[in-house]
Amino acid sequence: MNLDVTMLNNYQDTNTFSESRYAELGGVDLVKNSTRKADWVSPDVIQKISESSSLREVEIPAIIDQDVVVTAVPGFEIPANLSTSGKITAIAYDIFSGFRHYPAHYANNTVKEQFDLDHKIKKVAYGMGKKLDEIVLSRLEARKTQLMPLGTAQVSDGSKTFGFNVTTDTLEISKEAQKEYMFANLSRIVEANEVGGDYEIVTSRAGLAAAKNEWAKYGNSNEKNLQALGFPAIDQLHETGTLIPGANNFNGYYVRNGAIAMYENFPADFRMGTKFGGKEWSISDMEIPFARLRANVFTNLEATNATALVSAGRDTNLVMTHFQEMALWIRVYFLEEFNSDLTTRVNPVVKIVGLAS
To answer: What is the residue-wise DSSP string for 235-270?
Structure first.
């Protein structure tokens, strides 16, 4: 008996592999931390945002800063010093995705059904997280300070220079300045411009490599005063592939906690948990991965002929079958700290660039 034919049969492993890659979405992480510090947003506003229709805007009143009149002449001519008000308006974005799942498709397939289902859910969640990361960075770009008049020259030292480019509205950091004193000097620059506070940073991938390497060189038992270096906690340092460094060592944003916040919105049927004809509306019990927000979830069961899924031959498992359909919808509102005029008032969102020379 000739065994050549059976020896050449392909071996089909029942374990499945995915080539998908998942990386940190630093813009999302930064704004999540910032949201927790946005103490100027009241619980009532957060509740209204969660239930608001797109036909209604959510607004927070704000008092505009002013120079008060002060004189050296007491008397009945009292300066009025009347207040002027403005408002903060929430900005809404929609992020929508989903998938279909045909259970019968796996009856004649070595790919395990649960593995593929888990993979699809994770892949969709990551795609939605990347879209949210892009939105976050677009908001930071829109809110970047357009002036930084004080402090940059004072913290510069020889080749370790910091300079604000008024053409690109960017704080440029020289190659030498990106090492051990970068964070301490950044904090001193924002303090000099009267927007000090607790800041976090997000850059392009590996953007903080030089600073982290300097940090790693020193331990607790040597002569370096690590506190003086001004390094933030590790969970305040973020990187993302959404930012592209180009010809620079890194591009990024230096953002005060509380300067930007985001909150979920849940339309009526999702809040009510409506069920109808194999369709169900709900809200995820937990934040979905990567986007780190709760999602509106729609599920649907339908019967169909799905033989078109298989290109070679006719799979009778799919002639009269069903599919499960899931939609994930993140509706998110952004609120940003009030600034009555970005052209004349420093804002606590600083676009930074680590120069390559």
So the answer is: GGEEEETTS--TTSSEEEEEEETTSEEEEEE--HHH
